[in-house]
């Protein structure tokens, strides 16, 4: 069917094309706008309905993809992998989330583009520039153009498009809401406690052997972990990030802090290795001054004076672990840290 088969009264109104004529003052005439060509959807309601169903289908697929995104996030284990040719092995959850989220976004965009190109008015309008301040006439024209645009979009008449579009736009934000699950579960008291407890032996991180007082020389720095924590454990990284310990032997007369001296054994003191600034591992020790330095931001702590901060951005001293010696002569913890290790957090108090 062509525009010649449609009565003129059924065709959309043509835009008047004004073409300027070249003269001596203006040798480059304005060519004006080309004649408007009607689309098949403008002259055939059956084609318009096909486009309407196509747009509705795209919005519906977007809704289904959003539901699939949520279902994938809940149902697929985070450690499951699949083989996708020709890419190879991929994390199943990441693949499903990317595929469904991409489909949801693409279908919303494709539906909007197809709607605009096939059903909304495509008549080109030339409008002269006007001052920034809008006159009452301009305001009235804007409102009239808005009403005309709303009418030409057929949003009120094409209820199928309207309802499916609202459904797609309403469901899609749920993808972001579901992602909030990764903010939980709440840590509870996990940040306040470590694996250290009364009777736990101090194990050398390098030799994986329990430490005796004779193993720690004056002026040396030794790193230790709790007895029973092995590197192949599933939670090793999470636990060592809280329980990592550094052990230094000082001359008892050099210890200035009374509590530090009481919690030590023959000058051997045990402090958390985790910097109280942003959690970096402390590894630099200056035996003459008894200072330890965090290599990340140069926070400096005095191990002879309760590990207080003497320089840098750290907010508080390193927590000390109370230690002693068991019946077999090995160094052991006499409890857990009495305060949370590492950086401060909002509910620490």
Largest sheet: 5 strands, antiparallel
The number of distinct β-strands equals 13
Radius of gyration: 37 Å
Shape: elongated
Q: Kindly name the structural category.
A: alpha+beta
As laid out across the biggest beta sheet, the strand order is: 3-4-5-6-11
Mean pLDDT: 87
| N- and C-termini, Cα separation | 77 Å
Strand content: 5-15%
Number of helical runs?
8
Helix-residue proportion:
25-40%
Low-confidence stretches: none
Q: What sequence of helices (H) and strands (E) makes up the elements?
A: HHEEHHHHEEHEHEEEEEEEE
Chain-wise SSE layout:
Blueprint (H helix, E strand, L loop, with lengths): L39 H4 L1 H31 L5 E4 L3 E4 H27 L17 H18 L5 H13 L2 H5 L23 E3 L16 E6 L9 H8 L1 E5 L8 H5 L5 E5 L11 E3 L4 E3 L6 E3 L5 E4 L8 E2 L1 E3 L5 E3 L16
Antiparallel strand pairs: 1-2, 3-4, 4-5, 5-6, 6-11, 7-8, 8-9, 9-10, 12-13
Helix pairs in contact: 2-3, 2-5
Can you tell me about this structure?
The chain contains eight helices and 13 strands. It has helices spanning 40-43, 45-75, 92-118, 136-153, 159-171, 174-178, 236-243, 258-262; strands at 81-84, 88-91, 202-204, 221-226, 245-249, 268-272, 284-286, 291-293, 300-302, 308-311, 320-321, 323-325, 331-333. A hairpin with a 3-residue loop joins strand 1 and strand 2 (88-91). Helix 2 runs antiparallel to helix 3 (92-118) and helix 2 runs parallel beside helix 5 (159-171). The radius of gyration is 37 Å and the shape is elongated. The model has no long low-confidence stretch (mean pLDDT 87).
């Amino acid at each position: 069917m062509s525009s010649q088969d449609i009565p003129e009264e059924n065709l959309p109104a043509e835009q008047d094309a004004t073409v300027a004529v070249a003269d001596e003052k203006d040798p480059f005439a304005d060519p004006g706008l080309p004649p408007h060509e009607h689309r098949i959807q403008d002259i055939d309601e059956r084609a318009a309905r096909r486009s309407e169903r196509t747009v509705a289908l795209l919005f519906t697929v977007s809704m289904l993809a959003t539901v699939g995104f949520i279902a994938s996030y809940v149902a697929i284990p985070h450690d499951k992998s699949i083989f996708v040719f020709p890419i190879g092995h991929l994390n199943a959850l990441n693949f499903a989330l990317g595929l469904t989220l991409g489909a949801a976004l693409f279908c919303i965009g494709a539906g909007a583009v197809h709607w605009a190109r096939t059903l909304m008015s495509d008549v080109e309008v030339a409008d002269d520039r006007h001052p920034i301040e809008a006159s009452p006439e301009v305001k009235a024209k804007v409102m009239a153009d808005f009403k005309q645009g709303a009418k030409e979009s057929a949003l009120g008449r094409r209820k199928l498009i309207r309802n499916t579009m609202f459904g797609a736009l309403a469901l899609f934000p749920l993808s972001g809401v579901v992602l909030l699950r990764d903010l939980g579960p709440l840590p509870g008291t996990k940040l306040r406690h470590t694996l250290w407890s009364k009777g736990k032996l101090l194990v050398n991180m390098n030799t994986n052997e329990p430490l005796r007082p004779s193993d720690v020389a004056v002026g040396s720095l030794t790193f230790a972990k709790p007895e029973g924590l092995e590197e192949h454990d599933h939670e090793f990284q999470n636990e060592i990030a809280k329980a990592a310990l550094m052990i230094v032997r000082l001359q008892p007369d050099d210890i200035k802090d009374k509590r530090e001296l009481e919690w030590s054994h023959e000058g051997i003191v045990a402090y958390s290795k985790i910097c109280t600034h942003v959690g970096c591992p402390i590894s630099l020790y200056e035996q003459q001054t008894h200072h330890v330095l965090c290599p990340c931001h140069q926070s400096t702590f005095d191990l002879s004076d309760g590990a207080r901060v003497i320089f840098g951005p750290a907010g508080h001293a390193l927590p000390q672990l109370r230690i002693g010696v068991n019946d077999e002569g090995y160094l052991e913890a006499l409890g857990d840290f009495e305060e949370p290790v590492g950086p401060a957090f909002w509910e620490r108090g």
